Amino acid sequence: MRRRVGIGTVGFGWMGQAHSRSYLRIPTLFPERACDPELVILSDTVAGRRELAAEAFGYRETTADWRAVCEHPDVDAVVVTAPNMLHVEVVEAACAAGKHVFCEKPVGGTPEQTLRAWEAARAAGAITGVGYNYRFAPLVRHAAAMIRDGRLGEITAYRGRFFSMYGSDPLGVLSWRFEQDEGGYGVSSDLLSHAVDLAHALVGRAVRVVGMRSTLIGERPLPQPGAGHYGRGRDGDPTGAVTNEDSVSMLAVLEGGVQATFESSRALVGPESQMAFDVYGTRGALSWSLERLNELRVHQPADGPETGYTTVFGGDRFPYHGSFVPGSANGIGFEDLVAIEDVEFLDAVARGEPHEPGFDAALEYVAVQAALIRSWESERWEDVVPLAAEVAR
């Protein structure tokens, strides 16, 4: 029997809308689900977004006050898609009100805030989820199974990266993502977190790191109210300073001594949305990129002269792909990954079971981020120190 799960969403920008669409789609996609989501209440400070939430998405109630979401008696799970620096306050209030919590990464704007959110959820016994949605790509799950089953042999090296062009235009507006006081750190929170989390899920946790950062575009046009990080200003608009990093590079040692490199940037010209990894073993290698979401490149020993990578196309033989389209090489998209992520979280809530990735995964990443930040100052290798003893292994 399915359990109704009341949804309260805080923030209705891109990701707030993406999750809300997936809640509406879940009943049509996943007949074996344990949950039936209901859109109860939405908070956003922009009136036009509240109107959209009610009229187009069917939220029963809307409000400008996020506290009303956390306190609503019909809400079982609070979904936090607000700017990073609001995360911890909303999470703490939701947990205090007895709600389960899904929060977009990085769960706070700084490692210290992520720890606060983790502590609040742990004290309340809340089921938590964090928005590391690339774990849910069907071919990434297949890659994880190949690694786990030993088909690549002993893992020897890993390369993770997330390059995006959303900040490459100097006229791109100064959204909250570019301000330390609003978004916390820059790409080390926004993009690098995805790349490192996937390494943690596929290969093992980072134990030592060293890295560097840069800000490539120092000023941007001031935004209009409600503008997202894809908004664009005009020549002559008043500008403000970018106060966090545009680009980060990091060397790392993973568990077992695996050497790894990580890069992320929002300001490079060229890669559109290259969230990607390469993993190398003694008997094979794998390569995947979000830009080619439905393709996995596989290299394994050949008996004949035909060596090199083979492209494996996505299809309904891989986890969840057939929920969206049948057959092989009929592609799925980004929001389909969000739908998989959301149904797994809501099913965990309906069953009263832990969800992975939850706030433990968020805390594991920000321990890496904290070591990286230390290395920016020391210009030396830094050990990754768990921020809470309960997540140390």
Q: Can you walk through the features of this model?
A:
The chain has helices spanning 14-29, 47-55, 66-71, 87-96, 111-124, 138-148, 180-183, 187-190, 192-202, 334-351, 359-378, and strands spanning 3-10, 35-43, 61-63, 77-80, 100-103, 128-130, 155-164, 206-214, 219-221, 239-241, 247-254, 259-265, 273-281, 285-289, 295-299, 310-313, 382-383. It is globular. Strands 16-15-14-13-7-12-11-8-17 form a nine-stranded mixed beta sheet. Strands 3-2-1-4-5-6 form a six-stranded parallel beta sheet, with helices on both faces. 31% of the residues lie in helices and 24% in strands.
Helices and strands in order, then pairings?
Blueprint: E1 3-10, H1 14-29, E2 35-43, H2 47-55, E3 61-63, H3 66-71, E4 77-80, H4 87-96, E5 100-103, H5 111-124, E6 128-130, H6 138-148, E7 155-164, H7 180-183, H8 187-190, H9 192-202, E8 206-214, E9 219-221, E10 239-241, E11 247-254, E12 259-265, E13 273-281, E14 285-289, E15 295-299, E16 310-313, H10 334-351, H11 359-378, E17 382-383
Parallel strand pairs: 1-2, 1-4, 2-3, 4-5, 5-6, 7-12
Antiparallel strand pairs: 7-13, 8-11, 8-17, 9-10, 11-12, 13-14, 14-15, 15-16
Helix pairs in contact: 1-10, 4-5, 5-11, 9-11
